[in-house]
Amino acid sequence: MTPVLRTDALGKRYGRRQALTDVTLSVPAGRVVGLVGPNGAGKSTLLNLASGMIAPTTGTIEVLGSRPAANPAQLARVGFVAQDTPVYPGLSVGDHLRLGARLNPGWDDGLAQQRVSQVGLDPTQKAGRLSGGQRAQLALTLAAAKRPQLMIFDEPVAALDPLARRAFLQSLMEFVAELEVSVLLSSHLLGDLERVCDHLIVLAASRTQLAGDVEDLLAAHYRLVAARGDLDPPPPGIEVIQATHTARQTTLIVRDTTGTLPDRLPAAEHLDLEEMVLAYLGRAAEPAGTANAVQPLEVSR
Amino acid sequence: MIDFHLDARSGLSPYLQLVQQVQQALRLGLLSAGDQLPTVKEVVARLAINPNTVLKAYRELEHQGLVSPRPGVGTFVTRTLTDDSLAAHESLRAELVAWLSRAQRAGLDADSIEALFMTTFRKATEVTP
Amino acid sequence: MIWLTWRQFRGQALVAVAVLAALATYLVVLGLRIRTAYEVNVDCAGCSVEAAKDVFESAYFTPLLLTGFLVVLVPGIVGAFWGAPLLAREFETGTHRLVWNQSVSRTRWLAVKLGLVTLAGVILTGALSLLLTWAASPYDKLFDGRFDPLLFPTRNIAPLGYAVFAVVAGVTVGLLVRRTVPAMAILLAGFVLLQILMPTLVRPHLQPAVTERVAWTAANAKGLLINGAGEVWTEEVAVPGAWVLTSGPQMLDAAGNPASQEQIESCPRAEPSAHMACIETKGFQMTLSYQPADRYWTFQWLEVGIYLLLAGLLAGFVFWRIPRGLN
């Protein structure tokens, strides 16, 4: 099956600022992909490249097997909701649905009308007067009713209060259950995405730090706690992501590359998603030259 | 019908939480054979979780022989877990209450009691899985 | 796409229709009055053309000049209020990110928007220009001054070129600046500058001017000036229907040498017309540069062509730029 997103050595430069560096990814179809990283890590750049809003400086990107936004057929297959969910302030909710119906040959008007009434949007209301949560629901409806194969959301819940955030994710997951659509969404808060995504891409300092199915990632990462010096050098077949030392004790967050670590070290403990992601973000922030550029990931639930 | 909930602090993956909640409901007699589980869409709409998580939990329950899907209708409970153990619940609960009051008299606070119980529970279940 | 463009544009279109209706009514009334005045003052036995000119000048010079300014200004307003915000407002509010992700290519999106708004601008400007040309035609016939830099851009087809150019230029500025109000200001300033540069620096040279030595007559020169050095200059020169590029040439005597104060003063001081008649008999000459009257339509087409060419170049840039995304 064609990957929904495939990039090869993808890079994007704005003037002198390198927003994205050497990103090579392949995301299989049917996933809800969480793109996580601190602000300024390059998440929006990657999503804008995937939706064809901007063109890459180096490398290649393919979405559903084609160049993003190459033609109307490709546009029809991808639903993109940009950051801050832009809508036409002077047009009503109903006008936006008419816009969707006129500009998308595969428009599912039944779905759109049903969603709009289900989330309680008044079709005569001007979009400029909607709350952030209502705007997000309208943008989600517009993206879903064109019946795309992939929906892309850039920080969809960042500006929403917890209730609207929950409502948005509920609607989104309903669409996923109903429409068999792949989803790619970003957030600087892992907590927003933890429940909904089954594939994770961690981006920091313009590079991918980690990518894969959540289940596989969790299965391959462990915490090793031992007396200081016992893990020096670390056992073979593991990659140390993060090491912290106290006077007597060493804690390692490691990735098992062999699949045999629990047999060799029964004391190895599994991590939760947040600890794993934080370890990678911590590592990305370490090199002296880039330390200032990367803010720590905000963790909140 | 069972109402799922998720505890973000439990450390258990969402799919395992769903499996355990069904198992627990079966043990406590809240669900019995023939009952329908919520549809994937209903669970997703309520909890805002990935549909694949729900599907995976239902597949796991099916694998354990507890539920079976009827295409186009939903997922139904095929067997309960109440058998003999439910009868033993009452006397065990009474013993546990007695133990708890002994622990309180010995000066343990709630956190200490929970820590003592959990470490003993873990050790015991590790020895006899 | 046409629906969306119309939906976004209909408010402005209604304003335009209202303005056009008001101006059209005014121009029709003005045109009918001028026609009546023409019949009374010009198409009558024994009427004096000079007297009619005086009547027309005092009654209609100002209204026609002002409506003429309006016709030149309308393309600028259209460019600033319709052209400049067309893309700039989308970028400013981020809505391009919504519409670019519908199943319509950006090229088509741009083509429909630009096409419809340009068409609206041309219709509005064209209707005004046509009405003014009609209303003013008796006046223009009487004075034969339609080649004049003040009248030339307000009559016939030249305003159509301005309208197309102004809309496309507004869109281009909007694309480059991406902010509505600055884009409007830049467009207006640029358009006004171009409307000044065109008649002063470009239009006179579109075809080589005719330069010839003509007899100084009381009819083609309004008066003469004598400076401190004793040199004699013509005050103002007119050639019927032509665009005279030389303003106030030096007077030459019959032999072709600069005329002197003494030569002028050989005519006795008298009342002005007799004095001028005397001077006329002395055979003075002057060297004139002008674009003859029969080139009027050539110049109209050249003017339209130049503005359309500029608009085409800008449109080419916009159509090249938009599909590449905004980096």
TrEMBL record, chain A:
ABC transporter domain segment(s): 5-230
Taxonomic lineage: Bacteria, Bacillati, Actinomycetota, Actinomycetes, Micromonosporales
Pfam families reported in the protein's UniProt record: ABC_tran
A single GO molecular function term of this UniProt record: ATP binding
PANTHER family xref list: ABC TRANSPORTER ATP-BINDING PROTEIN ALBC-RELATED
Name recorded for this polypeptide: ABC transporter ATP-binding protein
Keyword list, A-Z: ATP-binding, Nucleotide-binding, Transport
InterPro entries: AAA+_ATPase, ABC_transporter-like_ATP-bd, ABC_Transporter_VariousFunc, P-loop_NTPase
Recorded superkingdom: Bacteria
Automatic annotation (TrEMBL), chain B:
Entry keywords, A to Z: DNA-binding, Transcription, Transcription regulation
Occurrences of domain HTH gntR-type (ranges): 12-80
SMART domains hit by this protein: HTH_GNTR
InterPro entries for the chain: Tscrpt_reg_HTH_GntR, WH-like_DNA-bd_sf, WH_DNA-bd_sf
Top-rank lineage group of the source organism: Bacteria
Keyword DNA-binding: yes
PROSITE patterns: HTH_GNTR (PS50949)
Gene3D superfamilies in UniProt: Winged helix-like DNA-binding domain superfamily/Winged helix DNA-binding domain (1.10.10.10)
Name of the molecule in the record: GntR family transcriptional regulator
Organism: Plantactinospora mayteni
Gene name in the database record: ytrA_1
Automatic annotation (TrEMBL), chain C:
Superkingdom assignment: Bacteria
Residues that span the membrane, as ranges: 12-32, 64-88, 109-137, 157-177, 184-202, 304-322
Keyword Chaperone: no
UniProt entry keywords in alphabetical sequence: Membrane, Transmembrane, Transmembrane helix
Protein known as: Transporter
